[in-house]
Amino acid sequence: MTDDTDDWAERLRENRREKDRFFAEHRQSPIPPDEREAFDGLDYYEPDPDYRVEATVSVHDDPEPIEMDTSDGREVRYLRIVTFEFDLDGETWQLHGYRQETDDSESVFVPIRDKTTGQETYQGGRYMELEPEGELADGDEVTIDFNLAYTPFCAFSETFSCPLPPEENWLETTVEAGERET
After folding, report:
1. Please, what is the average pLDDT of the chain?
2. Residue 38 buriedness (CB in 10 A; 0-12 / 13-18 / 19+)
3. pTM assigned to the model
4. Which residues pair with 98 in a beta bridge?
5. How large is the average pLDDT for residues 30-59?
6. DSSP reduced 3-state for 146
7. How many CB atoms lie within 10 A of CB 51?
8. Which of 42, 48, 55 is nearest to 12 (CA)?
9. What is the side-by-side order of every strand in the sheet holding 108-112?
10. Cα–Cα distance, 106 to 61 (Å, whole number)
11. CB contact at 8 A, 164 and 71
């Protein structure tokens, strides 16, 4: 590994340690209070730079509303605001990024399923949040880091309702990066 890769992997590990502390100690943790003492951290795949991919952006000037099913049987509406195209494992893939209509942030919500879903990772899929610097434009290149894919809070407690990745964000490949099933 190069020094940059070593630095990236160490930053990722520190981020994971901070998240584990939050889950174990914070009053807003999704881990039910009576289970926190026994909580000894989330399970993660080893950091893998091959799962950091450059994606080309296609912006949807007229974002299409998408109804996403949720873990508690409801539906929530998101807008499909962007499509990311990238290569992974020698193939070209697309993922869509979403934002709720009332969300004024620059954050892009990318829920995914892949061939680890329900096997090695949470059955409801995983999430990624992209924080682009400024407004995205057609042709921009952004890094999608699957090492940051995380399990939604509803996997830990039924008090949370989580959107499930729509079928258009189901990858027919294995993404062995990010959080695993605990």
Report:
1. 94
2. exposed
3. 0.93
4. 80, 109
5. 95
6. helix
7. 19
8. 48
9. 126-130, 108-112, 91-99, 75-88, 52-69, 141-145
10. 15
11. yes
